[in-house]
Amino acid sequence: MTPIRHNGSDNDAVLDAVRDAVLAVGVRRTTLTDVARRAGVSRMTLYRRWPDVRSLVGDLMTREWIAVATGAMPERRPGVTTRALIVDGLVAGVRAFREHPLFRKIVDVDPELLLPYVLDRRGASQEALLELLAGVLREGHDDGSVRAVPAERQARSVLLIVQSYALSLRTMTDEDDPELGEEAFLAELRHILERTLTP
């Protein structure tokens, strides 16, 4: 087994391994031994960076959720306001997040893993998302397309809205009724975001 160097590609190899393990058996049944075997490194190599599986999974979630958020943000186009880009990106992000295999596995098998980030404290991925949101909201303030209020508070408020849709939407949908299906609720989310961000 080879030692892991502390650079991005090595960390990605370990995070890829923990993702594969979690998708196969869930978080509770994933072990550092299994992750080390999948990554081709020693268990002690992992312990030097991550004290337990939960810390590994926390880093994995941060990587995956930030990739979802940045991947959902549309390209800038002439004549399209920053507000329109934000709303499109957030709605697409909720859809992509809910379809993400890791999120679906955690919700189905280990939902308690998400509770601290809903009830008690912000996690690293939420902090990173807030930073991204605050930056793009400031751009919207500058071009006049977004209601100008303190950007940090506005980012936290928007994340509260989006997070509730991402985490709890399935408790409200009724796929037998088109008026209560996922797409109808995502359209409602779009309307809410437009209303709250419009000057």
UniProtKB/TrEMBL annotation:
All copies of domain HTH tetR-type, residue ranges: 8-68
Keyword annotations: DNA-binding
DNA-binding keyword on record: yes
Protein's recorded name: TetR/AcrR family transcriptional regulator
Gene3D superfamilies, per the entry: Homeodomain-like, Tetracycline Repressor, domain 2
InterPro entries: Homeodomain-like_sf, HTH-type_TetR-like_transc_reg, HTH_TetR, Tet_transcr_reg_TetR-rel_C_sf
PROSITE patterns: HTH_TETR_2
SUPFAM superfamilies: Homeodomain-like (SSF46689), Tetracyclin repressor-like, C-terminal domain (SSF48498)
DNA-binding recorded as keyword: yes
Organism of this sequence: Streptomyces thermocarboxydovorans
